Amino acid sequence: MTANDLLPLTEEYGCPLYVYDVATIERQYQRLTTAFSKVEHLRINYAMKALSNLSILKVLLKMGAQLDTVSIQEVLLGIHAGCPPEKIIFTPNGVSFEEIEEVAKMGVQINIDNLSVLEHFGTKYPTIPVCIRINPHVMAGGNQNISVGHIDSKFGISIYQIPHILRIVENTKMKINGIHMHTGSDILDIEVFLYASEILFDAAKNFTDLEFLDFGSGFKVPYKKGDIETNIEELGRKLTKRFLAFEKEYGRPLTLAFEPGKFLVSEAGYFLAKVNVVKQTTSTVFAGIDSGFNHLIRPMYYGSQHTIENLSNPKGKERFYTVVGYICETDTFANNRRIAEITEGDILCFKNAGAYCFSMASNYNSRYKPAEVLWKDRKSYLIGKRETFEDLIKNQIVVDV
Predict the structure, then answer these.
(1) Kind and range of the H or E element at 88?
(2) 356: annotated binding-site residue?
């Protein structure tokens, strides 16, 4: 999408605004399926936590994606969007056993990452097949907060505890139909991913009735020109070769599954905000926008570097700006960033805003969440209304005491 596409949307729908380009989502989905085209049984489980708007889910379901969920609410959203329960995998962490039970009764694939939960579930529901999430003890990911496969992670059952898993399976006679891992997000080195995959293959040998191997995801996308990204095509060639060899060794057809979220929707997203003030201090020029970390928290939480462009003056002379929000504490999107000259009223565009942006938005400072728009075939569709004051108070109960 270009400035000529995006600017009119701010006039029609206002600012701040999230925009999602369907063509980019389709391109990323095709890249992934093409990279693994030699795998007969490939399953792409879209990680809903990245962006769970119902219209986005419908777009991905039409392409053939299934869903990866981490809460019962995501499961319900997925079903509401038209996904059959059997095409949803539920991989929670630290939720109540009652929540797992309720999801299992819907017919959703359960993925368990805790020995005590595994034993409890197997004892109570031995006929319901489950997947096991292992922790390969491999450090991968671009930030400590998104590296989930290392030895100190709360996620997964340690590979060193496989004897415990086998004892539970033997005692309960439960069926294990899948093995799963997820090492972390923003994977730079595919060799690390392949190394962890070997650990998953070794773990899989302990189970005789597997139907699928789930390798998680964490594929990195470029955040700026020249940025490093996961070489999905090279990974496809190397992992396909190894998977097909393991499939023969295992002696039965298996499904290869992934759970991409960011890879599919990150580059499709644009966040548009208006410049309220330009403020020069003794050392810094601030561009203050009509948003904050209540709408886009990734730069503050993860240190992410979203490319920022001035749509109102794209060819202007570049100057250095620190882009900040209107929240009442440290609220910095970019420090000392080169951006085409900014004046008050200009529209700034934050790229790579499709994943973990709106989905992590809040009402902090009692601000409204922005609208969401889908862009397909040069037409725009409102898929999420801007909140109003009534939305802020609709669930509150006023008690005069």
Answers:
(1) strand 88-90
(2) yes
